[in-house]
């Protein structure tokens, strides 16, 4: 393994070293959800101070935009094993889907990534292209495609798509059991979703600065309308900039999937990833009633057909 001289990095880039050495993972295993959130905010603030000290700001080379509960954490974790992939301040920055965070401005967002000079030095040391990116599952956000295009029009976008029924169930039980912010039963949450989020969703379309936090939290079924979301991204980016990945493929054939991803990102494909670690995918997998499952299937049927028409490919959950 190549030895790096990490002192070439500017303020804030020391956390790259910690992540590469896996200290971040060890600490996270011992922290509560609330503690993790406070640490992420502190790290983001620490990195953000660089905008006052330097104009050496970069932009992400890649974005893993979703889907939420589709394996974005696992893919991001695996990619960070690669010596040519550097992390941002945090995995999920939420600049493009949270108007409150977006008020911090473009320079703040750019300051969340390693400086251009540090990336250049590492690239020279490795003799290979070095990239950075983030993994915020904001593909559901109505205005995100335009915001991304305005700031980083040449970025490469990775989209993980999971069986929308499994995704919705995983999303619900994550909210219910881990985050502790879902008081309704799974049946109540799914059957009343439209009533809970409709007003916020519609307002978020007409007002790009509206904070639709309940829509983001409780959009269990709506996030599975992949056809509508992919179509929005295709309007702002060339299809060659977007890689669609079936989440099931990532977890049944991780090495094959990572080969496709590294080729798409134009980095070395001969790295031997450790795929033995599983993160969030499937941790909250639960069963629902047959009636509720049938209800979800009937909702997603037309969306699944249209998804295949738009993308021109088959997905594992579509019969």
Q: What descriptors fit this protein?
A:
five-stranded parallel β-sheet, 5 strands, alpha/beta, 319 residues, 51% helix, globular, 7% strand, 17 helices
Describe the structure.
The structure is a single chain. With 319 residues, this protein is an alpha/beta fold. The protein is built from 17 helices and five strands. Strands 2-3-1-4-5 form a five-stranded parallel β-sheet. The chain is globular. The N and C termini lie far apart (45 Å).
Short description:
The protein has 17 helices and 5 strands. Strands 2-3-1-4-5 form a 5-stranded parallel beta sheet.
**Radius of gyration using CA atoms only:** 19 Å
How much is the average pLDDT?
87
Structural class, by secondary structure, is alpha/beta
Q: Please trace the helix and strand order, writing H or E for each element.
A: HHHHEHEHHHEHEHHHHHEHHH
Strands ordered across the widest β-sheet:
2-3-1-4-5
Shape, per Cα inertia axes? globular
Helix and strand arrangement:
Blueprint: H1 14-20, H2 23-28, H3 33-48, H4 50-53, E1 62-66, H5 72-79, E2 85-87, H6 99-102, H7 106-110, H8 116-126, E3 131-134, H9 144-151, E4 156-161, H10 164-179, H11 186-191, H12 193-206, H13 213-218, H14 226-236, E5 242-246, H15 247-252, H16 254-265, H17 290-311
Parallel strand pairs: 1-3, 1-4, 2-3, 4-5
């Amino acid at each position: 393994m190549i030895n790096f001289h990490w002192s070439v990095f500017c303020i804030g880039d020391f956390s790259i070293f910690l992540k590469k050495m896996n200290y971040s993972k060890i600490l996270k295993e011992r922290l509560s959800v609330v503690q993790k959130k406070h640490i992420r905010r502190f790290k983001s603030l620490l990195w953000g101070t660089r905008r006052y000290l330097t104009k050496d700001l970069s932009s992400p080379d890649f974005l893993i935009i979703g889907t939420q509960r589709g394996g974005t954490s696992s893919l991001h974790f695996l990619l960070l094993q690669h010596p040519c992939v550097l992390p941002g301040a945090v995995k999920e920055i939420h600049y493009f889907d949270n108007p409150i965070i977006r008020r911090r401005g473009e320079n703040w967002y750019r300051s969340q990534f390693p400086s251009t000079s540090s990336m250049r030095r590492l690239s020279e040391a490795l003799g290979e292209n070095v990239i950075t990116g983030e993994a915020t599952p904001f593909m559901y956000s109505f205005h995100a495609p335009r915001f991304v295009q305005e700031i980083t029009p040449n970025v490469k976008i990775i989209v993980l798509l999971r069986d929308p029924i499994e995704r919705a169930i995983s999303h619900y039980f994550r909210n219910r059991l881990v985050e502790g912010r879902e008081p309704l039963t799974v049946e109540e949450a799914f059957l009343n979703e439209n009533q809970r989020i409709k007003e916020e969703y519609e307002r978020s379309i007409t007002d790009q600065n509206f904070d639709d936090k309940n829509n983001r939290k409780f959009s269990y079924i709506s996030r599975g309308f992949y056809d509508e979301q992919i179509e929005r991204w295709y309007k702002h980016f060339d299809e060659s900039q977007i890689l669609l990945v079936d989440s099931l493929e990532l977890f049944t054939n991780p090495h094959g999937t990572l080969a496709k991803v590294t080729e798409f990102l134009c980095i070395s494909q001969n790295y031997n990833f450790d795929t033995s670690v599983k993160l969030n995918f499937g941790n909250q997998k639960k069963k629902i009633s047959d009636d509720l499952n049938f209800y979800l299937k009937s909702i997603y049927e037309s969306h699944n057909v249209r998804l295949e028409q738009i993308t021109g490919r088959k997905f594992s959950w579509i019969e």
